[in-house]
Amino acid sequence: MPRALLLDLGGTAIGSGVEAMADLAEREPALREVCARRGPLGPVADPEWDEMITGGITEREYWHRRGAEFGAALGRPGWTVQEFMHLLFGQPGLRPGARRLAADARAAGVPVGVLTNDLRAFHGEDAVSEHPFLAEFDVLVDGSDIGVLKPDPRAYAIAARRLGLPPGEIVFVDDMPGNVDGARRAGMVAVLLDYADPDAAFDTARAALGLGRRAA
Asked: How far is 203 from 215, CA to CA, in rounded Å?
């Protein structure tokens, strides 16, 4: 039975950028055209998303490209990816299903960690202190700090070491297929989150950890 929970942050524990684009299009009419391309969720095909999913570009490169595109649409050439993320997310909170899962895991004595690639890179040096929900996790591993990004096997090894458990005793949830594949190769119990039904992934992780059914 796995004995620890490890969550990706953006797209998993919190909502994804492509989900946030729908709200952004309503707030910023000038961005409706570029927001129509939002990964698997938009009405217009998003070739760069498809290129990222197949490994042609990194997730970081995808968001840098989209940030430049959004900046141009707003007449802000040269703005940073951090400015783009602030516009896109504001002050994000945890998905309710992720919050329930993390709380139930910790109540059962199961350590809960985060393994993210780009917290500081995308949200700035003060990201950790500005997001109080991060205090709900026992371990935070940010690729921006360690210099290794998922799906590099070293990222999962570092997270496992900080959780104090072998990879085979950790359940990992992520929204990127490549990261899930990387976790599985590293020996973790890996679960892919589908934006259409995020709670299904949390329920799968809950079952793998023996936490029982979530409250209705």
From this structure: 11
Single-letter code of the amino acid located at 80: T
Instruction: Report d(CA 28, CA 25) in Å as an integer.
Output: 5
What b/e sequence results for 41-53 when a residue is b if at least 16 CB atoms lie within 10 Å of its CB, and e otherwise? ebeeebebbeebb
Q: Is 117 left (phi over 0), alpha (psi -120 to 50) or beta?
A: alpha
pTM: 0.94
- Strands across the sheet with 189-192, in order? 139-142, 112-116, 4-7, 170-174, 189-192
Residue 29 CB neighbours (<10 A)? 8
For residue 16, CA distances in Å to 39, 106, 154, 186, 216 come to: 10, 24, 24, 24, 24
pLDDT for position 187: 98
Contacting residues for 148 by C-beta, under 8 A, at least 6 apart: 154, 155, 158
Look up residue 115 and give its amino acid: L
